Amino acid sequence: MIFARAAVVVAALALAAPAAASGSKVSSPLQLAKQAERLKPGEWVWAGKIAPTGPVLVYVDLERQRATVYRNGVRIAVTTISSGKTGYDTPTGVFTILEKDKDHRSRTYDNAPMPYNLRLTWKGVAMHAGNLPGFPASHGCVRLPLEFSKLLFAAMPMGGTVVIAGGNSDPVKRPPAGVLAPIFAGVTPARTTVVGGSHDYSWKGDAAPSGPVSIIVSTGDQQVVVLRNGVEIGRARARVQQASSETQVMTLTGSGGKPQWIQVGVSDLAHQDADIISTQGVEQMQLPPEFVTKMRSVITPGTTVLVTQASVTTDTTGAQTTVLASDPAVK
Questions:
Q1: Domain tally for the chain?
Q2: What is the pLDDT of residues 68-112, one digit of tens each?
Q3: Residue 12 lies in a domain
Q4: Cα(69)–Cα(240) distance, rounded to whole angstroms?
Q5: What is the pLDDT of residue 20?
Q6: Could you tell me if residue 28 is inside a domain?
Q7: Residue 81: exposed, middle, or buried by beta-carbon count in 10 A (0-12, 13-18, 19+)?
Q8: Can you give the CATH number for the domain in which 68 is found?
């Protein structure tokens, strides 16, 4: 029993302990692109000065065992990762950073260190520094090189967006998406057909006066739910014609007063390019006019929109879960 206990402890520490890894900081998109193509297990490249400010989105590609960081819609970093091994698969979906803990230790695996921990679910899935053998080896978390995890920890705000997918498609830029287009100087939102009146929606902006905004468009429920800081502040009936069944996520970025949605394919899009997805259903979405006005008022750079066929219930929204996860039961 003593030997078995020791073996468990050693295994847990081996999974969590950061390994020596090499990385570099560069100053141009070209240098970033060149080094990103040559990364070996444990290596990373960071070019934060390319886009020093703006909303941050992390795209984790489980198939390629890579994570890419975008700031204000610009790729600023790429790293190798190690995700969940067989039986402990890392869940795919769209997540927000629920907690940051520089000195976190595992409550499940014998107090194993998980430095620079960025929590994705309250059931134990996170991004943190750890061992990178070149293949999936964790108990569900996304392991990062130690020095890279320090940089990401500093750059990633609470409520920041993380997309975990099984395919190898990169985010692509889209024009403002119809009814979701916020009011920016010099930008005229597309004309939108609206339905219903005040009885078709609810709005409680005071429930969360500030924080990151996520909008869930459920084509199955024909509803739109607005979350701020993980708390529901608005919900409306909608008419959404979405030809594709694939989940999609868009994060708003803006520079020079011009909004632009960064679109990423998620769990259903393995082996497909993100740019094949039509945003037509979102652009033509019909909503109560008062709700549209209120929703636009909270849309700012960093806002994330999730389009899904899944139902929007208390199990898929709120501060104690992800915005949407393909398998929330995974630990």
A1: 2
A2: 998 877 789 999 999 999 998 898 878 888 889 987 777 666 667
A3: yes
A4: 31
A5: 45
A6: yes
A7: buried
A8: 2.40.440.10
Say if residue 29 is in the same domain as residue 104: yes
Q: Using an 8 Å Cβ cutoff, are 293 and 219 in contact? A: no
pLDDT above 60 for 139:
yes
Q: What is the mean pLDDT of residues 180-184?
A: 68
* pLDDT tens, residue by residue, 240-273: 776 556 667 788 876 556 677 777 755 443 333 3
Contact residues for 237 (Cβ-Cβ < 8 A; gap 6+): 195, 196, 200, 201, 222, 223, 287, 288
In DSSP terms, which residues pair with 66 in a beta bridge?
61, 80
Q: Determine the 3-state secondary structure of 147 from DSSP.
A: helix
Reduced 3-state DSSP string for 193-239: CECCCHHHEEECHHHCCCCCEEEEEECCCCEEEEEECCEEEEEEECE
- What are the Cα distances from residue 50, in Å, to 25, 32, 69, 106, 245? 11, 10, 12, 35, 35
Q: Which domain holds residue 239?
A: 172-324
pTM of the predicted structure, to 2 decimals: 0.71
